[in-house]
Amino acid sequence: MTIVGELLARHHERLSGFPAPLEQHFEAGLRALAPVLTPSQLQTWAETGVDLTGLSLRSWEAALEYFRAAPLIPDGASWEAIETLGHEAMTMAAESAPLAVSFLRSAPQTMETIGSSHVRQWADMGRKLYKGNWKSSALAGQFFEISPGLYAVLRPGQASRLIVFVDELSRHSYELAAACLASAPEVLGRLEDDDRSPFLGFAIELAQSSWADTRLYFERGAHLLHKVHAPLRERFLLLTAQAARGQSRSAFQYLEESAVALGELEPDEHFSVLELAEQLAPYSPYAAMDFITAVPQVLTRIRIDELRGWQEAGLRILQVSHDGGEAYFRLQSSRSEDIIETLSSRVELSRVGEILRLYCKALTGRNVAVQSSSALADKGIGWVNENHASTEGTTIFLPEVMETFHDKTDNFAAYKVFSTHQSAHLEFGSFEFDFERPGAHFGNRRASLPAAGNATTHMERFFDLFPDRRLASDLFTIAEDCRIDGAIKREYGGIRKPLIRMQRRELGNRPQIQALPLRQAFVENLVRASLEGLDAVLWPRSRAEEMSSALGILNLLAEPGALVEDAAEATLRLYQVAITIPNILEDMPSSSWGPVEPGQPGEMMPGEGGESGGEGMQMEMGDVSAGGDEQDYKSPDEVGFRGDFKPELVQLLMKMREDAQGGEAGDQSPTPLTPEQLQELLEKSAEIDLDQLMEGDLDATTGMFMENLMREAGTPSSDQDGNDGDPTADNSTGTEEGDEPLIPIVTIYYYDEWDFRAQDYKPRWCAVKESKLESGEEDFYENAIREHAGLVAQTRKQFELMKPELFRKIKRLPEGEDFDLDAAIEWMVERRAGASPQEKIYWRRNKIDRDVAVAFLIDMSASTDEEINKKDKKMDDDDYNDDPRKYLSWWVSRRKQELSAPPKRIIDLEKESAVLLMTALEAIGDQYGIYGFSGYGRDNVEFFVIKDFDEHLDDKVKKRLDKITPIRSTRMGPAIRHATYKLMKTDAKVRILFLLSDGRPQDHGYGRDRTEKEYAIHDTKQALNEAKREGITPFALTVDRAGHDYLKTMCADMGYEVVADIEALPSRLPTLYRRLTE
Amino acid sequence: MAETAAKGSTVWAVEEYAVHEEPYYLPIGDEVELFQTAYEQRIPVLFKGPTGCGKTRFVEYMAYKLGRTVTRVSRGDGEAADHRMPLVTVACHEDLTASDLVGRYLLDTDGTRWVDGPLTRAVKVGAICYLDEVVEARKDTTVLIHPLTDYRRLLPIEKLGQVVEAADGFLLVISYNPGYQSALKDLKHSTRQRFIAIEFNYPPRDQEAAIIAHEAGCSSQAATDLSKLGEKVRNLKEHGLGEGVSTRLLIYAGRLMAKGIPPRRACQVAVTWALTDDLEVQRSIEEVVTSIFE
What we know:
The complex is a heterodimer. By secondary structure, chain A is an alpha/beta fold. Among the domains of chain A are: 1-120, no CATH class; 436-644, no CATH class; 650-718, no CATH class; 783-799 and 853-868 and 904-1077, Rossmann fold; 806-848, no CATH class; 874-900, no CATH class. Chain A has 46 helices and 18 strands. Chain A has an 8-stranded mixed beta sheet with strand order 8-9-15-14-13-16-17-18, sandwiched between helices. Chain A has a 3-stranded mixed beta sheet with strand order 2-4-3. The longest helix of chain A is centred in the middle third of the chain and has 23 residues, at 469-491. The N and C termini of chain A lie far apart (126 Å). The relative contact order of chain A is 0.04. By secondary structure, chain B is an alpha/beta fold. Chain B has 2 domains: 3-199, Rossmann fold; 205-292. Chain B has helices spanning 31-40, 55-74, 98-102, 118-125, 142-149, 189-192, 205-216, 220-234, 247-258, 263-275, 279-292, and strands at 3-4, 10-11, 45-48, 87-91, 103-108, 111-116, 128-132, 154-157, 162-165, 171-176, 196-199. In chain B, the strands form 4 sheets. Chain B has a 5-stranded parallel beta sheet, sandwiched between helices. The longest helix of chain B has 20 residues, at 55-74. The interface between A and B is medium-sized, with 29 and 30 residues.
């Protein structure tokens, strides 16, 4: 009998009690192992299996798996491995049979990957997850099930970290732990081997601090981690883990934001960014994370090597105050902005636009606007480049940012050179070209040329002279720019230096001249010469003469007194030279090119040119058609600081504007432009590149283009139906009537907000949206007056008494208008009595000015909706006199009263008080404005104008009063700041800000959470302080009975009052006001 | 009579002060002839114009010039050099009352003593009385101005119960600056229409350059640049600048430059900072300065 048979027989009795497959698998297992094991080993194996069956009710299932596993065990498995397997199965089954089942079921496959030596470790991991309840058992079972797949990805050490993580997570949620475990092979499989341990390490941190985030982490973490430069991933995760360790903040969000931020940077920048962040971490890991997140945004303004300076300044703040430092790196502090601004070398148009506008206005003496070039490109009227300076006659367009140089002052100087050049076009009349007017230096050869018929503008007529319009346009641009730069240098000595520097810089960027076809090389030389780069002029020596005379012509333009007409004449002459030069690539050795000295423009001067003009000229003008080897003529590269010069288009626009404005006056433009003329002009002009302007077929493009031009010039559009739904067209016509527009016009103002923790302002934090309050019924005003008739009369009288007499007599002065008789007599008496009397015996009238402006700020928050006499009502049964027969009629009348007069709310009293005060103020003649405020969140602080300072108390205002209704929250700070701004615009000597509210400031995001009071109160206090600093007297009046405690903080050294009896408000308010201003 | 005070300054009685040396004045238009003709016929004159454009200088210049003419006509002999046209200038302010102009009783050891005000003195000696910025004064001054400016040429002195007939040479000249006054401080029509009005403005660039060069003693290049600066800054008038930069300020800048202060710095203190406190406008003016001066 074989050992197999013997063992089968021996254990038959014990196994027969179980379902048949058990014994079948036992036999199969024996047969499979018999060749590998010694008989005694086989015996031990069999006994272990049989023992398994007896451990618990269902442990036979484990035994079944044990037997089934035997044939599957990998060939190389040692007896020790098999023995350990049995041993582990026994221990496990003793605790939980299902656990042992899953263990044994995946054992053969797992052993294949981990090798037989790690079986115990593996089993331990599973056991670690098992906590004795069914959920943990399921989790552990799940672990064994996925083990084969898991070990295909992970090394054993990594797996044990995973288990630590899953174990940690399972304390909080088995479901989440199971989900993470299930996705682990796939997630970890996507990571590189080196990243897995750090990834799991962070997962453990996350499970400990904000475990709920782990789901997101497993979903997106791997993807995010890939954004970080590979060698730095572990450091990055360690840093993030520090932030995760803090309580109550969302760690994953930090990871996500900072990883995304790093993803926006170049990988080689990661090292320095991370290093800087690590320096912050000891003080605040949050600041470190915020720093990383902020870097991409900061780097749009400063260079990477300047980043350290910004970080260091923040670090110093962080060392002193955590809140301050964190706000700094969240970019929520003015200091942070300031430092970026100081470090940054670039200059933004939005910051210097106003200065440049005034500068250009000063230079030109015209009301020019300054806008960014992209605004001009957006208009679609012929200018396409968003980065070039230009002007269309009324506005100077400049690039949005200037970062050419590594120094702020240099960049600003560049802006100045740009705007000076554009201003100079306006100042020195580039666009006032008159075809008939002779030049100062060149005379008027134009006149002798045959005119091409009906041109719309002088510029067009001039360009019509030339067969090659592009060449002419380029030459005119060079000539005119040369004249303008000459004039600038002469007139503005101070700008000469930066201008010359810009010219030098441009010269350095010019193309290789010998690589250009000859005619283009000629034009290029002119550009260089116009940039004062005579030394950069290179020209074939064989043709030196033509270049020399051309340079002479150009030189003359920089002379004092040169007019735009001179530039035109120069263009004529240069053109005639240029057209004779073939546009071919000269195949000459570079030695045959040499510098050229400017000659006398003499040979081209009008003297002899005039006579030979006439027909002779016609020939000289040449022909456009390029023959033979000639290449198509291309315009020279632009000169950066000169921007785009489009005189023809500007003259056209000017003409169109004139047409649109002075249509009837007529003397300027007897014949308005027809669309046909316009189209013709646009098609031939060299200044407009229609292809570049828009896509689509040419007809549609010109049509659109003409529409744009007409709108720009203010000409009524030719086809009104064509552009419905165009917002600009709608706006320009809606509001002609005196009525207020249906949709209120909202103006947005931005204000800083004070963060008392950071002790710094959050820059441009709140958007205050100012609009006129919509109109309601006029009845309200009248009713309020009627209801409080007595009070109105009384207040008015009191206020009229306050009205100052224009002059007040002041007595006992050392000198004055006349004697004060009493004092004079006294003086005489005393003198006679021998005393030395006071010599103050005169009087004079002094003018007393009452010059008061007051802004009332009414709280329109939702809480003002509360009814005020709700409680009192129940008690208010006094007028019912216990007679049950009368009760019914009493009740009816009372009910009627309630219905006809709905209960009053706080807001109603606020409104009525406002009405009363208005009548009082009208009586005394103070300037006043009444404003309401509400809103939700910092982006939406609503500021309603009920009566502006410059409005009169008319029906419109009265109607608006009716619409004061409770809306939303109370963000007082920005409302106060805006009211301050309004007050500062008045010219009164005494300015008062009167704040009328029903409770403490409160808003979404106005503080760390909804319940925090300090932030809002501090900001409000700061806003009131700012007002005070401006010389405004703030006064707060509140109907919140709990008002005293926060008002004490808010209005520490200012006037405030809590009106205990709310219903007294209408009478109290005018009294208070009077006291304040007397 | 003039007495010389301790520190070398000369003290004059109000009505005895006259312009002794010919003031520099560069006529821009026909204002000299106009004034001369008006004076010959004793037509009161109103000067309109911004501050620092030369109104006061002009009246001094005319006083000097007329003094000489008058002398020549009346005497014709050697005393010519001594006879000068007295000029009484009163800068008006908002508390200036009629009695400040006419006179008042002052206390003396023996009681009170009447003291003539500057206007009374001018009327008595026949001086040109120049009321600078007349709208600033109290409205009661008009009571005095009216009878003096029509055919009557009388000054009523209410407190003395007297009426003074103006001496032959007397002429009332007033100035006012329509630019910065509010609607409240406008000259009443009944007053306005008693004067012929000569309008002043900042001189054109070349003339202004000549004025600056003369007054400041700076180089003509500097003067040209300053006048250019003046023209540019005046373009900014409505922007926080109540008025454009005055010729006077430009001259100050020129003087600083003539004594070696660097041009940009001189313009900063004499123009930019003198004109406005608005930082943005300051910066803009600064940029114009740096564009013009190296």
